[in-house]
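Consider the following input, taken from an annotated entry for GNAT family N-acetyltransferase (Aequorivita echinoideorum).
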Amino acid sequence: MIVREALREDMPQVLELIKELAVFEKEPEAVEISVADLEREGFGENPLFTCFVAEMDGETVGAALVYFRFSTWKGRTLHLEDLIVKEAHRGKGIGQALYKKVMQFAFDRGLKRVAWDVLDWNTGAIRFYERSGANVLKTWRVVHMDEKGLRDYINS
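Applying the prediction step yields:
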């Protein structure tokens, strides 16, 4: 297995992984981005994210996508948006290798925090994160406002 920083030409496979994750998370129709979006936003003059891919026998079997955030308490931090392993390749250490790559990326940059979200029903992921020493917060809620909500709110 090889874990490396993704290249522009990896984005079609990364998008397929994102779509597989959406199916796993029971929202198969939620993915709106395209390969062109990933290429533009991740590989332009000011990339919005960094992506790592895991390969086995020349096949992309996993990915982790991260971006920088700012915490008023900690300063510059890293957000792990998605950590994805193809279903057929789970249980082979791929997720752990990608996770370690993300943590090393943050550590090497002197960041004080890596944050991410996990669905409350994804008990396998929660156990994995807790075993790694991560603190799965029980008292915080993730809040989103979608495009319709934005439009409705600003027009109210």
